[in-house]
Every structure is written in structure tokens, then in C-alpha cells.
Amino acid sequence: MTQGQKPRKASRKGRPKNAATQRLSMQQERFVHEYLAETPHNATAAYARAGYQATGQAARTAAARLLKQPAIKAAIAELRARDAAKFEVTRERVLEEYAKLAFFDPRKFYNEDGTLKLPTELGDAEAAALTGYDVEEEFIGDEPDVEMEDQAHGGKLKRQHAKTLAVGRTVKIKYQRKKDALDSIVNLMGWKKEPAQLGTPENPLTMVMRDLQGRAIGFTPVDHASDEDDAE
Questions:
Q1: Which of 77, 131, 68, 142 is nearest to 104 (CA)?
Q2: Domain end: 17, 52, 86, which one?
Q3: What pLDDT, on a 0 to 100 scale, did the predictor assign at position 123?
Q4: Which of 137, 154, 178 delimits the end of a domain?
Q5: What does the pLDDT read at residue 169?
Q6: E strands present in the chain
Q7: Angle made by CA atoms 171, 182, 99, in degrees to the nearest 5
Q8: pLDDT at residue number 192
Q9: What's the number of domains the chain is made of?
Q10: 97 φ/ψ angles, rounded to the nearest 5 degrees
């Protein structure tokens, strides 16, 4: 810098912005909240509920573009982390609940005499797996007894007493499918393997073709003409 020149301010142009510090517009914030409000997440529906005007394919494209913005990604991650901390949702707790649904014992819904236990008598795993507890009772009845009751202010109040007899009681329970919980555990633990694509070394058809090609290469034709010459 030569003498007499004023120092120039550092230019902000071209300086990358931190996604975490970028402020979203009110419409973008609403999009983030609408996106997280339903499961499974639907970016196009959230885009419409946030008040954007585009429709159809234009809306789907614009919604997908919003999701790719670093500031939107950071806001979604921040809200998810905040909710997880608030409700103490951890990977271990989720896995523990899935394990209850996957490994509960259906026999523990019953007492030793074959009767169903009450919901308050179930263990933690069985209570977590229980999705329905329906009780149906059947009654037979006769004409009700009629009684006229005197009232303090005068007059009479007609009361009817039903004559019924319980003749049956049916209890039905419904519980979570074990396979759904097991599939969720497999996904959470990262044990799910993608199916082998045609042409990959792991594909059985590729292995068979490779074996056949190897046999073809190693095949040596027999010279029958030389055998006939030797015979002479």
C-alpha cells in the first residue's frame, strides 16, 4: 500500500456462507416444519402447504430443489436433533423398542388356565406389542321390570329395570407383526444387503457363465485323423 492510500475493506463477494448461519425466509421455515410434520415425508405436499404457487411437475421439481439447499438441510437436521433431545429419542431406545416387538412371546398373553391376561398384567414386551384388546359380551333379556317411584315434589317417576343375563364373553387381542419389527431392526443395524445386480461377480448367473466360459477355453479338440493314421 502506497503512502496516502486508504486501506481497502475486505470484499465479501465470493465468500462461502455457512449453511447453519443462513437465515431462512418465513416460507422456507414453514416448508421445513410442514416437511417434518408428516410421515412418510412428502416434499411436494409440504411445498404446497407452505404457500408456494407452483403445481404439478413444477412443484415436485421446486420441492426437490429446496431440499437440496444447504440451509434447508441444516434446518431440518437441527429440528430433528432438537426433537430427539427433547423426547430422549436415541438409537439405543429405538432399537430397544423394536426388540420388544420382534422378540415378545405370544404365550405370555395367557394365564396358565388358558384365559387371557388383563393389559395391566402383561410384561413390558407384551404390552408394547399389544395393538388391540376387544371385549364382546352377549346377553339375553326379558321384559324389564317397571317401578313407579314417588317424587318429593309430587308425581311419580317411571323406572325400568332391565332383566338380562350374560351368556357369553369373547376377548380378542391383536399384536404387532414380528416381521415388520425384524425388518426395521435389520435396516437400523445396516444388515440389509442390496440384491446382486446382473453382471456383478456376486450374481449366481454370472458365476455360472464364467464357469462355462472357463470350460470352453480349457477344451482341447481331439484329432481323429491322427488316430486313424496310427491305426494303420
A1: 131
A2: 86
A3: 93
A4: 178
A5: 75
A6: 130-150, 156-175
A7: 75
A8: 78
A9: 2
A10: -70, -40
Domain of 30: which CATH number?
1.10.10
**Domain residue limits at 126:** 103-178
> Under a CB-based contact definition with an 8 Å cutoff, are residues 76 and 36 in contact?
yes
Q: Which residues pair with 149 in a beta bridge?
A: 157
Distance in angstroms (rounded) separating the CA atoms of residues 110 and 171: 12
Half-sphere exposure (Cβ direction) of 203: Cα atoms closer than 13 Å: 10
Is residue 194 very low, low, confident or very high in pLDDT (cuts 50, 70, 90)? Answer: low
121 and 164 together in one domain: yes
Please check whether residue 148 lies inside any domain of the structure: yes
| H or E, element range at 211 | helix 204-217
How many helical (H) and strand (E) elements, i.e. helices and strands, does the chain have? 9, 2
Length of the chain: 232
Q: How far apart are CA 193 and CA 59, in angstroms?
A: 34
Kindly state the helix (H) or strand (E) to which residue 58 belongs, with its residue range. helix 56-68
Write out the three cell numbers for 225. 485323423
